[in-house]
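User: I'm putting together notes for a lab meeting next week and I want to include a structural view of one of the chains we've been expressing. I don't have a solved structure, so I'd like a prediction I can at least talk through. The sequence is below, exactly as it appears in our construct file.
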Amino acid sequence: MNVRRRHISGIAVTAAAALGLGTLSACSGDSAAAGNTDKFDVVASFYPMAFLAERIGGDHVNVSSLTEPGQEPHDLELSTKQRAQLEETDAALFLKGLQPAVDEAIGQSGVKTKIDAATLTSLEEHGAEAGGHDHEGEHAHEEEHAGEEHAEEEHGHDHSHEAGGKDPHIWLDPVKYAEVAEGVGKAFEKADPDHAADYKKNTEALVKKLGELNTKFETGLKDTDTKVFITTHAAFGYLAERYGLTEEAISGLSPESEPSAARVKELEKMAKADGVSTIFYETLVSDKTAKTVAKDANLKTDVLDPLEGITDKSRGDDYFQVMEANLKALQTALGAK
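Assistant: Thanks for the context. Below is the predicted structure for the 337-residue chain, given as structure tokens.
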């Protein structure tokens, strides 16, 4: 593979020289960091995908993320340079339904290995009352469209249609994230068979670690004073469902949508009834709404990180550290024994 690549760039440089385009060789050198390196190049859509690629790929991969740390991934628009990078890379790893611009760019690109994390586990719908147990089985299916419209109208779930009504935040459930990791590992083995044994070993280690994290959450949240938590952004539906909790979101799946006055009143009532002490906000979005609602209802605020990116404000340097910080925050807010 590398020999072929070197051969192609050699031809390009020769052609450039023949045409008197001395700059072309310099240009191809610039793109080397983004794609077209001697390693297995992976372009990931945002942090949770990049983290998987790095952990599974180890020394054999060169991973770059389309979403910068601290950038809100939902609203990402791709630059011309990033689109060019997709043409150079060996694989693209993304989560369809979270970032429409990325879905479109990867769909149109000529990248050989396209890995959609949404196909590696099952996505579910989480309506206005994410994490509620009424979204299972036939009942959920019957109410699918009615629920979606209601959520859209009431709480501005403007991302629900892009994901076909499904909630894309699967990485916040360690069990689903482990399923995605297994699928990514298999895709890497197939696309870069020379290093398949290492990818397999790295995937197994990551899946084991995610299993341990799941156990920590299970035991840590088993016995709590309340099972209800309030967040500004409905990102934690899968996590809530996994551990028997109920997430109430001030706004919908979109972190920027503003809640109606009626919704704020409803949340205040519910906080009283369910013994809720804390309103959670996230690191990448303003905490203004959370603080306003908390002040009116006499509640505390704290961070629950949806892990869409790691910045210097994050409580930890990687997925595992931030998830453990999330667990501690939930235990405090829910009154874990």
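A couple of points you could mention at the meeting. The chain has twelve helices and eight strands. Residues 1-34, 128-163 have pLDDT under 50 and may be disordered.

User: Perfect, that's what I needed.
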